[in-house]
Design brief:
Length: 361
């Protein structure tokens, strides 16, 4: 099995915290989609060699695309693979999804939406530069449900400057009230050269202290579990049978194919990636050549990735992947647990997962 990731780099504006590759050259959408279709032609043999299980439009802001462009890509993949019976996800910004667009996306085969809400607090949304407000976010979930989407994921962020526990509890409660099937929650990280990091360095905002971040995470984990969600990955929670198949492929070390600028591919032995530059990507593909970099993984790197990715999930890793004495030390501290020959991080262990992984490698 494998997944196909399509990177759509277009954004109306960059969020204060974002360091993903994106561009505001919205007028180049048609040219870009034409190039992705050409890349599919060039990589047809590669696509045909895998059983494609998922398709994921990420970004950037894929919801900015006219649905006709999404349809062209889906039809092209369907032509190559002769089927589109799979999980098809599109990342979306609440401000882009009108009732009409939602119906169009559902009709062309998108059956899962990942909506970047981040917060249901208008003060915090404005602080991080989001284009929507809380009322719009709530309405778009209702509109998506009315359009027939029964597999909805929302993204939320905690650890935001000035965010309080009451703010976080209110956001989580609103998410429950909306009856979505999947919730992804991330702690804010201050990435280099982002507007939010520059505000921090200038002393205009302050980081939330670590104890409060941990309290927010523990509240998140405990409350979501109590409300029927499975905590299946460090930052991801789903109602039964609604885990993201596409993202699970990454954590399970399953091959994936990336299309578009800045996208990555993995075949189990090596990783390759397209340039994070719109002009370089388009010029290369349209000339009939893929300007890609590639890294062949050593057995040691593959082993390390099995540990790093596996311990992020509720399935953990095979106990035989690590030294028993090191594993036992963390088990005795209550930070790892052993179940049926698997080593799994406890909720307390997830707080310092990077430290645990570094020790086990």
């Amino acid at each position: 099995m494998a997944g196909v990731y399509i990177h759509i780099p277009f954004c109306k504006s960059r969020c204060q915290y974002c360091d993903f590759y994106s561009t505001t050259q919205l007028h180049r959408q048609e040219e870009y989609i034409d190039t992705i279709l050409r890349e599919i032609d060039i990589r047809q043999t590669e696509l045909q060699s895998h059983d494609i299980e998922t398709i994921y439009f990420g970004g950037g802001t894929p919801s900015l695309l006219d649905p006709k462009y999404v349809d062209l890509v889906l039809k092209k993949i369907a032509y190559v693979k002769h089927t589109l019976s799979m999980e098809c996800t599109l990342e979306a910004n609440p401000g882009d999804l009108t009732p009409q667009k939602l119906l169009q996306l559902r009709a062309i085969g998108i059956n899962r939406l990942s909506i970047g809400i981040q917060s249901f607090n208008d003060r915090l949304l404005q602080l991080i530069g989001r284009r929507h407000n809380a009322a719009q976010a709530i309405q778009v979930v209702h509109d998506a449900q009315a359009a027939g989407f029964d597999n909805l994921s929302i993204d939320l962020i905690y650890g935001l400057p000035t965010q309080t526990m009451d703010d976080w509890k209110q956001t989580i409660q609103t998410a429950f009230d909306l009856n979505v099937q999947h919730i992804s929650c991330y702690c804010l990280s201050y990435e280099d050269n982002t507007p939010l990091t520059r505000l921090l360095e200038a002393g205009k905002i302050n980081e939330i202290d670590e104890d409060t971040e941990n309290e927010m995470y523990d509240y998140l984990c405990t409350t979501l579990k109590a409300n029927g969600f499975i905590h299946y990955e460090v930052s991801n929670f789903a109602k039964p049978n609604f885990q993201s198949k596409h993202n699970s492929n990454y954590w399970n070390n399953t091959p994936y194919i990336g299309l578009g600028a800045a996208s990555h591919s993995y075949d189990g032995l090596s990783r390759s990636w397209n340039p994070s530059d719109l002009d370089a990507y388009i010029e290369g593909v349209q000339a009939g050549t893929l300007v890609r970099e590639q890294e062949t993984l050593t057995p040691e790197q593959i082993h390390e990735e099995q540990i790093m990715l596996g311990l992020r999930t509720n399935q953990g890793i095979d106990l035989n992947l690590v030294q028993p004495s090191k594993a036992q030390a963390w088990i005795q501290r209550g930070l790892l647990t052993q179940q049926n020959g698997r080593l799994i991080a406890t909720q307390s262990g997830l707080h310092i997962l990077n430290c645990i992984i570094e020790d086990l490698l």
